[in-house]
Amino acid sequence: MSAITFAEEGEFETAKSMLKTKKRVLLAVDNSRIDQKTCTYALNTSQRIGSGIDILLVSDSAKDPAAPALQAFTGQLQAAGIAFGLIRRSGCLKQAILQYLEEEDNTLFVVIESQDSLQRHCPSTDKHLAAAWRQLKCPLVVVADGLKA
Predict the structure, then answer these.
(1) How far apart are CA 42 and CA 52, in angstroms?
(2) CA-CA distance, 71 to 48, in Å (whole number)?
(3) What is the DSSP string of the chain?
(4) Does residue 97 contact residue 110 with C-beta atoms inside 8 Å?
(5) Rounded to an integer, what is the distance from CA 83 to the centroid of its chain?
(6) What contacts 93, CB < 8 A, 6 or more positions away?
(7) Please, is 141 exposed, middle or buried when counting C-beta atoms within 10 Å of its C-beta (0-12, 13-18, 19+)?
(8) How much is the pTM?
(9) Cα–Cα distance, 71 to 69 (Å, whole number)
(10) Rounded to whole angstroms, how far apart are CA atoms 108 and 22?
(11) Under CATH, which architecture does the 21-142 domain have?
């Protein structure tokens, strides 16, 4: 309502700034396997929709140093002027995504490299995890190479 009031008074820039969303794209990556295509997809999409990026970095230990590919990607984000945050977790990528989405309600969608990367270090018999995954709170974008003949 406030934005409408400013627009009616001719303060269009103020109205637009009030309407800007704080929504973010979540790029979920495994530190041992960071695909440049997936990172580029997240960057390009973020630029088009005017959102920031949260990078969920999952590795064997939350204290593992970020892979060189991720360091290069964060440099690209800085050069492009895209706001980003880095969240470090260890263990199962699927569980880390669900935990992040429970804590943050401003996620437009999740970008991952492949379905295979979701299963690394995940218990295969966890029925609660499988049920929660089926009820994911936002769209999941899987960036993968096409099938080869």
Answers:
(1) 10
(2) 22
(3) -HHHHHHHTT-HHHHHHHH----EEEEEEETTB--HHHHHHHHHHHHHHT-EEEEEEEESSTTSPPPHHHHHHHHHHHHHT--EEEEEEES-HHHHHHHHHHH-S-EEEEEES-HHHHHTT--TT-HHHHHHHHT-SS-EEE--PPPP-
(4) yes
(5) 12
(6) 28, 30, 56, 58, 112, 117, 118, 120, 121, 122
(7) middle
(8) 0.78
(9) 5
(10) 10
(11) 3-Layer(aba) Sandwich (3.40)
Task: Tell me the C-alpha distance between 65 and 88, whole Å.
Answer: 10
Q: Which amino acid is at 112?
A: I
pLDDT (tens, 9 = 90+) of the chain, 149 residues, equals 555 566 667 776 665 554 455 789 999 998 888 889 999 999 999 999 888 999 999 988 777 788 888 999 999 999 999 999 999 998 888 889 999 999 988 899 999 987 777 766 677 666 666 777 777 888 888 887 644 44
Which of 91, 104, 95 shows the shortest CA–CA distance to 138? 104
